[in-house]
Amino acid sequence: MDMEKNYQLKTIETHTAGEPTRILVSGINLFPFFGRSVAEQRDLFAEKYDDIRELLMKEPRGHDDMFGAIPVKTEMSEADLGAIFMHTTGYLDMCGHGTIGIVTALIETSFLPEKEKIKIETPAGIVECRARIEADKVKEVSVKNVDSFVIGKKEIELEMTEIKSDVEIDLVYSGNLVGLVDVKDLGYTIDIDELDILKKIGIELRNRLNEENDFINPLTGNKEEVSLLEFYESREDVDRNIVVFADGSIDRSPCGTGTCAKMTLLHHKEILDVDEEYRYQSIIGTEFSGRIMDTDKRQGTTVVKPEITGSAYITGRSTFILDPEDPLTGFSLYK
Ligand code: PYC
Prior knowledge:
Layout: E1 9-16, E2 19-26, H1 38-57, E3 67-72, E4 81-87, E5 91-92, H2 96-108, E6 117-122, E7 125-134, E8 137-144, E9 149-159, E10 164-173, E11 177-182, H3 195-212, E12 215-216, E13 223-224, E14 226-233, E15 239-245, E16 249-250, H4 256-268, E17 278-281, E18 287-298, E19 301-310, E20 312-320
Parallel strand pairs: 2-3, 4-6, 11-14, 15-17
Antiparallel strand pairs: 1-2, 1-20, 3-4, 4-5, 6-7, 7-8, 8-19, 9-10, 10-11, 12-13, 14-15, 15-16, 17-18, 18-19
């Protein structure tokens, strides 16, 4: 980090179903990035300001499960704003819980007008949000995600001290490329007691999938990497998941793009109909509800249009600084 710069990074702190979104609202000059797509702005931010991501996401100002977002300007006439999503080790193209957090925080602090429909350009494309507002409070936000589809299935032979097993992984694109594993195939359940082992297996599976495969998005031709590994448990009442990303961050929410991926997979398996409500629970028992709004065929691929609904809350406002004498600009105990 350029120690000469006297950063005053102002954030709005939120959580969506327990998962944090630290929203950077001022403190750096993003003006030179404007006039470009949000994906390009994200790449320029990563080139020039990656140290700011580290400063805000990692310890001592953040933690290993921190998540963040940066509202930016959009050039797309149909969109209201753009959003960049970041975590402790990098960036995501789309984030459901983060989108719910941004819409809630920006409306409640008057950065955005009390408008019912808000379109956000993300690096994955435009997502359409509907906010239910009562007495200046955003009660819930529904996010119509980008087109989602099943990519295929892979099998990985796990040879870990704790587990030796062939694991089947469904691959679904829902703004991020998600690997989905039925936790019962591993002999586990979605339970806080299994968190450490599932985290370890999740990182191993995600890394092996990316090392051993080249994934190409059939609709864009772009190379994709598996960024989320989602373990799920089908239950009589409400299905549950644990989503692992970055260097072992665990989503406290049911994961927006993870919920869209799961609904897309269930629709593909003819288990979930268009318009049928799907509830999904996180490791801490919080919920998103979702439904598939419609389906379509694009370039020979069946795509579904998933929507999720959840609530976010502002937890605080912060100003982060870097004392020029402070050597700790972002660390993790696990690296
Ligand atoms: O809600 O899509 C999501 C998400 C991705 C990573 C953490 N949350």
